[in-house]
């Protein structure tokens, strides 16, 4: 969908920082601040990536990332949120393009971030659209998360690694696929309607993914079935 009229701007005033912090709370809705304004302010003031997505004068999204060790020339994208009602407009792709250009201007060759391996649309976007690699399976990475999106589930994540100056990683051919790890079509809906089944999916995917990765396979991509191990 069109992203005409969307402007991405640095959050470089206290007022903008506080608005960004409130936006994250509006997206995740939890018992405590999702990304406190003092942390955002510290990241911004020390030269990290802290931006807002604006539709006219209204902030509809925000993102924050911080530098990795200097020798790695990396940036870790920690949090990105888009308000309900504005998702599905291609804003994620526009934001990643902005992050890529911002990183390249500063001599950064790789952006990393984590994502829930059970959320199919995020996995598809990260691996099939951007062409990032999923390099590591992280068990309960953030512990218990008190927001409405993650509440009641363990915070397993995949670590995505995007080489911003290289061509996207292609989806592997069928001949190269050694195993497939299936994932649900709508884990978020399942969490609401059948939490026990959602938990079963978490443990099943965790066990299969760790088994295949420990055997020397790697995640090569994703298709309609799930993750493709090569």
Low-pLDDT segments, ≥5 res: none
The largest pleated sheet is described as: 7 strands, mixed
Structural class: alpha+beta
Give me the Rg, rounded: 18 Å
**Overall mean confidence score, pLDDT:** 91
Number of helices: 6
What is the molecular shape? globular
Strand order of the largest sheet: 1-2-3-4-5-7-6
Fraction in helix: 25-40%
The termini sit apart by 33 Å
Proportion in β-strands:
25-35%
Order of helices and strands: EHHEEEHEHEEEHHEE
Report on this structure.
The structure is a single chain. This protein is α+β, with helices and mostly antiparallel strands and 230 residues long. It is built from six helices and ten strands, in the order βααβββαβαβββααββ.
What descriptive keywords fit this protein?
230 residues, alpha+beta, 7-stranded mixed β-sheet, 10 strands, 33% helix
Spell out the blueprint of helices and strands.
Blueprint: E1 6-10, H1 14-28, H2 37-45, E2 49-55, E3 58-67, E4 74-82, H3 91-105, E5 110-115, H4 120-129, E6 133-138, E7 157-163, E8 179-182, H5 187-193, H6 195-214, E9 219-222, E10 226-229
Helix pairs in contact: 1-2, 5-6
